[in-house]
């Protein structure tokens, strides 16, 4: 597919709607992306013509749904270059994926005084599950610090690693700052000490090509709704040997082999971790999102988003009283900032009245906000369907908001 911004915007119906009688400028992509027509059509088709449970039925609708659902698993395996389809586990999203690893791996295999490393910039969903696991087994959480620009301080990370380090979990790309972490190097360093490495890829899955074999990631988590797919479904990738030795996350249908009143044996991968009826329509529609990304190509996506980020950074830097939060050299298309004398929530509200949707608050990264010396930021985040013209409108709206405040 040629990167035709006009055609791409036509594929995302929401880009043409009005908000408060103004054309929508959607700059909240780090929270959730808009949905493309193939995804919308797939969901509509499933519920209109193909609604039936999967995996256990022998009738046409069930078997057809199973084939489509499992085709998505294969497309995801290919997307991240996993060795086996059964290393791709369907979950509700990144949060559940990380909780699954914390519950089934950390609580099972870590013990008292073992250490878990997480960075200052982590989303709460990559902090709280490890705290819960550590409290249960008596392990310790240690913090990988970041500098004023928002980069992980690699020398400090190296000092933290030791023989007690059993698990490291960091984001690939920061949702608050856009910092792209040197994840491959970090994984390699952790493995030198025999530690397991968990990658939160929620922010990177739609922006960068991920190869779990090249990275040598032990676990990797991401969500459908941040890559143009439906909400309520996500993925946990795990190396086969690790997944096989972990206990199930939940009990119920599909995750069993044989059930008696006295004892239950469990199903093989991936079903061992997929209890109950899944989000079938979402799972089937997710393949359409993967196909769409593949057709565009990650190189074209990166080129377009870098152009948007560079332009927005240059223009917003010209406005007096605005300070950028997160100025790492290697960044994804996220622009966080504060305005002197204005609360981010007020900025967000006034921009919304002009049709501009941004995110305000602590972005579920309170430790990072504290490190950066702010309570909250305003965050504009860009995606494939955004344009230079939208950024120009955003800058004008921001100037108007500043004058009003």
Reconstruct the topology from this structure:
Blueprint: H1 5-11, E1 18-19, E2 22-23, E3 25-26, H2 37-50, H3 60-80, E4 88-91, H4 94-109, E5 115-119, H5 128-137, E6 140-144, H6 154-160, E7 165-171, H7 183-192, E8 196-200, H8 212-215, E9 219-223, E10 234-238, H9 240-245, E11 256-259, E12 264-266, H10 280-296, H11 298-316, E13 322-324, E14 334-339, H12 344-352, E15 356-357, E16 359-361, H13 366-372, E17 377-381, H14 388-404
Parallel strand pairs: 3-15, 5-6, 5-7, 7-8, 8-9
Antiparallel strand pairs: 1-2, 4-10, 9-10, 11-12, 13-14, 14-17, 16-17
Helix pairs in contact: 2-10, 3-10, 4-5, 11-14
Please tally the helical runs, counting DSSP H or I stretches of 4 or more residues. 14
Which fold name corresponds to the CATH topology of the largest domain?
A: Aspartate Aminotransferase, domain 2
Structurally, how many domains make up the residues?
A: 2
Strand percentage lies at 15-25%
CATH superfamily of the largest domain: Type I PLP-dependent aspartate aminotransferase-like (Major domain)
What's the total count of β strands? 17
What characterizes the major β-sheet? 7 strands, mixed
Average pLDDT figure: 97
Shape: globular
The side-by-side strand order for the widest beta sheet comes to 4-10-9-8-7-5-6
Instruction: State the CATH class of the largest domain.
Output: Alpha Beta
Instruction: Look at the helices and sheets and give the structural class.
Output: alpha/beta
Give the fraction of residues assigned to helices. 40-55%
Shape-level CATH architecture of the largest domain: 3-Layer(aba) Sandwich
Give the uncertain stretches in residue-range form. Answer: none
Question: What's the Cα radius of gyration?
Answer: 22 Å
Distance between the terminal alpha carbons, to the nearest Å? 44 Å
